[in-house]
Amino acid sequence: MSVPVSHRSAEEIGRTEQGPRPLPELGEQRAPADLSTVDTTIANGLRVIAVRRASVPMVEVRLRIPFADPAATSVGSQHAAGGEVLANTILTGTATRDRIAIDTELALVGSELDAVVDPERLSISGSVLATGLDTVLDVIRDVLTGATYPADEVDRERDRLVERIALARSQPNVIAREALQKHLYGDHPFAKEMPEAEEVARVSREDVVALHAKAVLPRGSVLVLVGDIDPDSVIGTVESVLSGWTGEGTAVTISPLPQVAAGDVVLIHRPGAVQSQIRLAARAVQRTDPKYPALQIANLVYGGFFSSRLVENIREDKGYTYSARSHPEFTPHGASLMIDADTASDVTAAALLETRYELARLGLVPPTADEVDVARRYAIGSLLTATSSQGGLASFLVSLAGLGLDLDWFVAHPERLAKVTVEEVAAAALEFFAPTAFTGVLVGDADKLAPQLKALGGVTLP
Amino acid sequence: MALPELHRFTLPNGLRVVLAPDTSAPVVGVSVHYDVGFRSEPEGRTGFAHLFEHLMFQGSESLEKLAHFRHVQSSGGTFNGSTHPDYTDYYEVLPSAALERALFLEADRMRAPKITQENLNNQIDVVKEEIRLNVLNRPYGGFPWILLPPVLFKTFPNAHNGYGDFTDLENATVEDCAAFFDTYYAPGNAVLTVAGDFTVENATELVEKHFGDVPARTVPERPSFAEDAPKGEIRAEQTDPHAPFPAVAIGYRVPDPVTELDAYLAYLVLAGVLTDGDGSRLQQRLVHRDAIVTDINAGCGLFGPLEARDPDSFTITAIHAPDVPVDRVIAALDEELQLLAEEPPTVEELAKVTARWASTMHREHDRLTNRTLAFGSAELLFGRAELIHELPDRIAAVTVDEVSAAAKALRPDSRAVLIVNPATAGGTE
């Protein structure tokens, strides 16, 4: 490299006359202000959580409608396909507004709304300038009670959806996720995160209208509003605006998942891949379980943040990966522990070996008091930073609400983390992180990977 | 909204400091923006600025390898760094009790980073994995930010791949790192930003305490990267082994955002008129009426607006069905631009864009990470962190005629067209 001016050597740069300096202690931490909040269920069965946080003149809106396939199996079920078409067309027409009118009204109050569906729920999310909240609530009312699903919109979105599904399925991350869910849960509707193109092609406008009438229900659903609002008066507004949204029964929650069964990692061939996706999973416990805070800390020490054993080993020591992490994933009835790492083909088997080694080590050489302390402080502090914005708080609250939890759980959680002992973390490490408890998938070029993975063992080759 | 007051001062060593107190939540953000990005890396060392960013996390005189991460995270904080065309930023966002610690960490690596062969080798491997993840192993990797610049620009600083090619990365030496640090990472070539829950008095004292004795060094003169706009329409084609559908990126040049900000903002508003929301011109025409593209986007800057100096770009990208010729997409786009050039958009069209920008900026401002970084980059590039507060009004002041003029300036005879073909479906021409 051309050197523009004379410069010091790296060694000279790395030292000063004074020498290393001590790390400053932490200062006094101010507690967050108490939140003014209302959490109530209105007459039609909809739970409404309203929180005042007036840092900017905006309101974050999160509506979650449980929207699971009531069938026991996704085989032969059109639910996922119908749900996708519904989500992509619910904001395209009502008796009084067409697609462009909806977009225009929202835009003029600085708002965007988005509808997405997954195996558990239909979510309508967005944000709005505080002065335009009434407009957004009225648009939401209009589509919930009177979405017309215009035939031309359904036709076009159906075609577009087929292309979008093909696009999604060209992403290695999506390929790995679909393979993992299928491997873990078989034909349970939870595993079906995306419909097949031919299923989408069969969805008619009438199907979508019928699905809306049957499944878009207030009872069991939750609406979270966080922002520059008065929680008491906003509840009254929501109650009057959405009173006309009614329906028989309760929105359908996903049925319990089969227990994750330990077993071999299944290798999935992706010809020409230059990098592999390692995706492992095991059983975990829900947030309400007494063991959860210890599990949360054990997970952080394993791979839940940058200063974890897994990242320090396979990234910062060995350079096998850019991204490696572990994290719990929750459903209303249970939880799983997931491990993700993407690694170059020639180091994939070695990365899997280290990933398993660190799993075993977590139980056998359990987290030290220092490791537990770092993880604990991260867990408490990151909860504070992640929920310090309106959007962050709204998203966190709506996901808690989906698990049947409320603001009290959130407010009390730092205390729970503070009480966890090193022994409890060691017990959680031994119980949940045993390598033999895991299974998973590995997506990559089998021609390159097979010899090493065969030698490593515990991998089913294609 | 009551805008938080901004305070600024410059230390004797040249470090510019911006303080943006706001006590609405007990958290604090600290960032350092260095005035060097991948446009400054020399030929034969593509990707070096980004590789060096990784090395800045690998330890400094008072901090062993891994200590930086542990100290941030054990304070309950998060961190990251990113490399842009014209600057490189580093940040921590933490509970406010950790303010001094964050300043200490940034000062220590500004004063005396520890650069070793072992850490360099390790981070070359990590960066190569990052490139495999984000570019080589996925569809549309580097589209358009790596693929379009060599078509739109002719000179090495503007045209080359900022992620770097593997050979160049592997050739990087510790000596290169030392030269790069001494040249570009001088305190006088940086902006320190502190935003969030603190008092100005206390923060000023802590900044002086930790950064005050970072020795001043010569600040390099910033070169101009100016080059002429393309003459004619320059086309290039690429094959993407992972892409299921063809894609196209069309790049134009825009006015200098630093010296002609209001003219630049007209393009920002134009982007909204074209592709923001179902009612926008190109969404209506290409997605819904003609139904020839799956998705279409338009915007200023390859990493977003107002984050690079001149020369900057305006880019339109679309993914379309294999049976739709790319020239049909481009022709429809040209027709829509022509319509806007002949007849300005309505006042209502602009009001929609303006209101959505206002709310976008409120939301950005509410996230401490974004707020801290926005103040820092505005101070570095524009010399005015206040710009962040003024943008909603300046965007609202853009007139329909200015947007029309911007549309007229996106001329077919001065643009770059990058066509991405899937490997399996064959070309579209």
TrEMBL record, chain A:
GO terms for molecular function: metal ion binding. InterPro entries: Metalloenz_LuxS/M16 (IPR011249), MPP/UQCRC_Complex (IPR050361), Pept_M16_N (IPR011765), Peptidase_M16_C (IPR007863). Pfam families: Peptidase_M16, Peptidase_M16_C. Residues 1-33 are annotated as: Disordered. It comes from the Bacteria. Residues 203-377 form the Peptidase M16 C-terminal domain. Residues 89-192 form the Peptidase M16 N-terminal domain. This is Insulinase family protein. The lineage of its organism: Bacteria, Bacillati, Actinomycetota, Actinomycetes, Pseudonocardiales.
Automatic annotation (TrEMBL), chain B:
It holds the Pfam family Peptidase_M16. The keyword Protease applies. The keyword ATP-binding does not apply. Residues 172-353 form the Peptidase M16 C-terminal domain. GO terms for biological process: proteolysis. Residues 16-132 form the Peptidase M16 N-terminal domain. Keywords: Hydrolase, Metalloprotease, Protease, Zinc. GO terms for molecular function: metal ion binding; metallopeptidase activity. InterPro entries: Metalloenz_LuxS/M16, Pept_M16_N, Peptidase_M16, Peptidase_M16_C. Belongs to the peptidase M16 family. This is Insulinase family protein.
